[in-house]
Design a protein that fits this description.
By secondary structure, the chain is mainly alpha-helical. The protein folds into five domains: about 100 residues; about 40 residues; about 110 residues, 2-Layer Sandwich (Ribosomal Protein S8, Chain: A, domain 1), CATH 3.30.1370.10; about 120 residues, Hypothetical protein af1432 (Orthogonal Bundle), CATH 1.10.3210; about 70 residues, Alpha-Beta Plaits, CATH 3.30.70.1350. It has 14 helices and eight strands. The strands form three sheets. The protein has a three-stranded antiparallel beta sheet, covered by helices on one side. A three-stranded mixed beta sheet has the order 6-7-8, with helices on one face. The chain has a two-stranded antiparallel ribbon with strand order 4-5. A hairpin with a 6-residue loop joins strand 2 and strand 3.
């Protein structure tokens, strides 16, 4: 048993040794084979990398050679251009040298000619002085006197020719434009029909009986005084039966007083406290009526988008007058005329109607500014966000602002048509007489005028001049001068025609 165990152990040891040796052998063979394989793969990779490097090197070399070739070609081109430029510069240098030589020769010849000319000029001046001396001796006039005489004659001749040229231009313009202008103006006037409204500074309030007049006056006139203090008017109670006269320069105040009197008389309770209450109520009602009138006017005229303040001003026009003409009626008439004339001329009639309706808004301010009403109206329109062409038409309709749009002359013309037509307005007799007297005095201030007559209610001025003092050519100049002076210095409705009359009379007596 022991022997068997020993033999088994020995066999195991021998088997283990043989197995280890065999394992080492197989492992070595496998390792050598792996090393060989790895060497082969490394060699293959090395060869591939060498090929890639060689290929890249060849590509880079080709690219560099190409760049070098391109740079060489560019350098050759630059060199050729430099050579050509050098050749051209040499040629220009040679040409400049040649031109300089020519200039030098020309300069010498010019200097010689200048010297010769100076010599001839001196000789000519000497001859002119000699001739001038001879002419002065022959004519008996010095050179300065002859020059002044010639200039005066040339001025007179030029003035006469200029006036003739102006007359030709005016006649031509009248032939071509007068007919069409008359047609447009007459058609515009005919298409607008309006009634003449004359307002006074007083309003008559009629009563049913004189008994009511006593109640209106009150004890010791306290009711009258309270009503005058509340409305800012003056009540005239005289012997006129069943009537009280309300006097005030402001039509709104007169209207407030009239309506308040109407309510007080209808109610029957007339005392100072009641008067103040009624006047306050009437003022509110009248303000609402003013706004309603402005809205209704804007709707009737087809004008939209007006500022509320402009609507209020338009409503107040109903209670304002200009030379006796109702301002709202005048504005509506001017607006219709502007729309008609703008349509005839191919312009926008809506804008023209808007400008015509707003052209006199400067006449009804709440305060009393010193600014002319046209400029103040343009300022109001600008504050109410109206367009610049509308503002310019409002401000320029009395030539107080430069006209920058075509609407401005249309509004100016239509304002004159509405205000200057017969019966539209009335003037105070003293102002009317003074205007005619100023016209005649203005014309008499010119030399050569013997008589002046203002006729046709100041629409025409006839000027009679002396035949021995003014020539026929000077009459045209005198007429234009008088017209310009009237236009610049006087205020008048419409236009004034100036007629200068010059006549020669031969008088003899048979004895």
């Amino acid at each position: 048993m022991v022997i068997i165990i020993i033999a088994s152990v020995a066999g195991l040891i021998i088997g283990a040794v043989l197995g280890y040796v065999l394992f080492r052998y197989v492992l070595k063979q496998t390792y050598n084979q792996s090393i060989n394989t790895a060497k082969q793969e490394a060699e293959t990779i090395k060869n591939e990398k060498l090929l890639e490097v060689k290929e890249k090197f060849l590509n880079k070399k080709a690219e560099l050679e190409k760049e070098v070739a391109q740079r060489n070609s560019k350098l050759q081109q630059v060199e050729s251009r430099l050579k050509q430029r050098e050749i051209s510069l040499n040629q220009r240098h040679e040409e400049l040298i040649r031109k300089k030589q020519e200039c030098d020769s020309l300069t010498q010849s010019l200097e010689a000619k200048i010297a010769n000319n100076d010599k001839k000029r001196a000789e000519l001046e000497e001859l002119q002085s000699q001739e001038r001396t001879k002419l002065e001796a022959i004519s008996g006039l010095s050179a300065e006197e002859a020059k002044e005489h010639l200039m005066e004659s040339m001025k007179d001749e030029a003035r006469t020719q200029a006036q003739q040229y102006i007359n030709e231009i005016v006649d031509d313009a009248k032939m071509t434009a007068n007919k069409e202008a008359k047609r447009i103006v007459i058609q515009s006037i005919q298409r607008v029909a309006s009634e003449t409204a004359i307002e006074n500074s007083v309003t008559v309030f009629h009563l049913e009986s004189d008994e009511i007049k006593g109640r209106v006056i009150g004890r010791e006139g306290r009711n009258i005084r309270a009503l005058e203090a509340a409305t800012g008017t003056e009540l005239v109670v005289d012997d006129t039966p069943e009537a009280i006269v309300i006097s005030a320069f402001d039509p709104v105040r007169r209207e407030v007083c009239r309506l308040a009197l109407h309510q007080l008389v209808a109610d029957g309770r007339i005392h100072p406290a009641r008067i103040e209450e009624v006047v306050t109520k009437v003022r509110k009602q009248l303000e609402e009526e003013i706004i309603e009138t402005g809205k209704r006017t804007a709707i009737d005229m087809g004008i939209h988008g007006l500022h509320p303040e402009l609507i209020r001003i338009i409503g107040k026009m109903k209670y304002r007058s200009s030379y006796g003409q109702n301002l709202l009626q005048h504005a509506r008439e001017t607006a219709n005329l502007c729309a008609i004339m703008a349509a005839e001329l191919g312009l926008n009639p809506k804008k023209a109607r808007r400008a015509g309706l707003l052209h006199d808004i400067g006449k009804v301010p709440d305060e009393d500014p010193e600014t002319p009403h046209a400029l103040y109206g343009a300022k109001l329109a600008e504050q109410c966000k109206e367009k610049p062409d509308i503002c310019n038409a409002i401000g320029a309709h009395h030539d107080e602002m430069e006209m920058t749009t075509l609407l401005a002359p249309i509004v100016q013309v239509c304002d004159a048509i509405s205000g200057a037509r017969p019966g539209a307005r009335r003037e105070i007799v003293e102002a009317y007489i003074k205007r005619l007297h100023d016209l005649e005095e203005l014309a008499m201030s010119y030399p050569g005028v013997t008589k002046t007559y203002a006729i046709q209610a100041g629409r025409e001025l006839r000027v009679i001049v002396g035949a021995d003092k003014i020539t026929d050519a000077d009459t045209e100049i005198l007429s234009n001068d008088i017209a310009k002076k009237i236009q610049n210095e006087m205020t008048y409705p419409g236009q004034v025609k100036i007629t200068v009359i010059r006549e020669t009379r031969a008088i003899s007596f048979a004895k």
